[in-house]
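Researcher: Here's the sequence for the chain we discussed earlier.
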Amino acid sequence: MSILKFPLLYAGSKGDKHLYTLFDGGANLSCVNPDNIEDIAVLEPLGHIRKLATANEGLFIEVKYAVRLDFYINDVLLSDEFLVIPNLSEEAIIGAATLQKWRIKLNFEDDIVEVDPKVAKLQLI
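Model: Thanks. This is the structure I predict for it:
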């Protein structure tokens, strides 16, 4: 199984920063490591704490915050909500919901991520 991981530019309410991003169709939601978000965006408390299951049976991670971030793939501006996951092993992860929302295609044969610029055509420039 191939892994696609690239530096992407993220922009939030406080600034922007490149984060190495893992594209993971097995992860439902997109998430970000809290150590990498302080300079980019203000953490928004979730209305209800989420408990995410891990690979270890009976072990859950409590998620208390989320952030809305813009990010660029091949110069196409996209946006989504990212859960802020304590002790996340990656700087950022793009999950299945974001992949589907923006019709992002993972091309493992050529090790590239593809996004059709038409999916972002409603943006104001």
